[in-house]
Design a protein that fits this description.
The chain has 92 residues and is mainly β. The protein contains no helices and 7 strands.
């Protein structure tokens, strides 16, 4: 199975505690890194361009860093998200 992160290298990771009504750390943005978001507790809303995707507890979501994106808490509690940033794959 070929996935967008199959040959990518992890650049860095973080655990985010997103308070009720919170998001961030910035609004829609782009950059050279891709993300994998893993929701550990609560529920996140990932905004991609003009589309919203709800990511529930124990689910993950891949974000292409070149697509405008942001992440928000979509729960009535603190949402905990593991964020892994990877290098973008180079075209061959």
């Amino acid at each position: 199975m070929n996935t967008p992160t199959q040959n990518s290298k992890i650049k860095w990771g973080a655990i985010a505690y997103i308070e009720k009504g919170g998001g961030g750390p910035e609004g829609n943005h782009t950059h050279s890194e891709n993300h994998i978001f893993i929701v550990v507790d609560g529920e996140a809303k990932v905004v991609l361009d003009d589309k919203e995707v709800i990511v529930k507890k124990n689910k993950s979501f891949f974000v292409d860093g070149m697509v405008p994106h942001s992440i928000w808490n979509n729960a009535d509690q603190t949402t905990i998200v593991i964020k892994i940033s990877t290098e973008r794959e180079q075209s061959v």
